[in-house]
Amino acid sequence: MKSIAIIPARMGSSRFPGKPLAKISGIPMIGHCYFRTQMCDELYKTYVATCDQEIADYVTSIGGNVIMTSDKHERASDRTAEAMLKAEEEIGEKVDIVVMVQGDEPMVTPGMISQSLQPFSGEEDINVVNLMATMKTVEEFEDPNEVKVVVDRNNNALYFSREPIPSRRKGVTSGPMLKQVCIIPFKRDYLLHFNELAETELEIVESVDMMRCLENGEGVKMIMTDVDSFSVDTPEDLANVQKHMLSDSLMAEYS
């Protein structure tokens, strides 16, 4: 099984413009994502996919692989698919799995990548996997920048939302507080199929791409990780990640 990772990134984030090059311990965030992702031995190759020359120049400067994409993409999955097809031209053959690692996940570890790939070796009907993690605080659970997920007893996604789910309206506080971690491997052909589907109503309402799968009756397998990881959507998130990464042992291998 040939797997590659693609890290889609662009400078034009509405909530935090320029965040891929925002520095954490002196290293741009996209650098952390790239260095840490490519450490996974199960990946044939890791690429950054971007439409911005500033990002491309930085990735090239650290010896990374970069693929320039259209500046018309609205969704990370569209950028990832374009980059995947260009990567296949370079490799000279089709890949089996493409792991989409969002460029705002600087705390990703190679073990998390490996975890996300495991389901594909045993179950043929799985087309897309997401990692998930338990949120430790109510503040994180109520943060609209964090995508929450509820799952069935087999860890298949039932629903994604930026609202706190399951509801605590009746005073029940012992329920799960699960968040999506944006390390998302797709089977190659399923990624192309996914991008051919029209955006769905709940996908737009929740601003969560994976709702497109669920609304079309297609499953999303969720895999629990116990790694403490925080994404970056705002400058405040960046400061939080900076604090948590001060004691990060993995960073010593590339900083």
What does this structure look like?
With 255 residues, the protein is an alpha/beta fold. It has a single domain (3-229), classed as Alpha-Beta Complex (Spore Coat Polysaccharide Biosynthesis Protein SpsA, Chain A). It is 31% helix and 21% strand. It contains 9 helices and 12 strands. Strand 2 (23-24) and strand 3 form a beta hairpin. The two termini are 31 Å apart. The model has no long low-confidence stretch (mean pLDDT 94).
Strand content: 15-25%
- Whole-number tally of structural domains: 1
Provide the structure class.
Answer: alpha/beta
CATH topology: Spore Coat Polysaccharide Biosynthesis Protein SpsA, Chain A
Q: N-to-C terminal Cα separation, in Å?
A: 31 Å
CATH superfamily: Spore Coat Polysaccharide Biosynthesis Protein SpsA, Chain A
What shape does the CA trace take? Answer: globular
Stretches where pLDDT falls below 50 for ≥5 residues?
none
Average residue pLDDT? 94
Gyration radius over CA: 17 Å
CATH C-level name? Alpha Beta
Helix content: 25-40%
Features:
255 residues, alpha/beta, Spore Coat Polysaccharide Biosynthesis Protein SpsA, Chain A, 5-stranded mixed β-sheet, 3-stranded mixed β-sheet, 21% strand
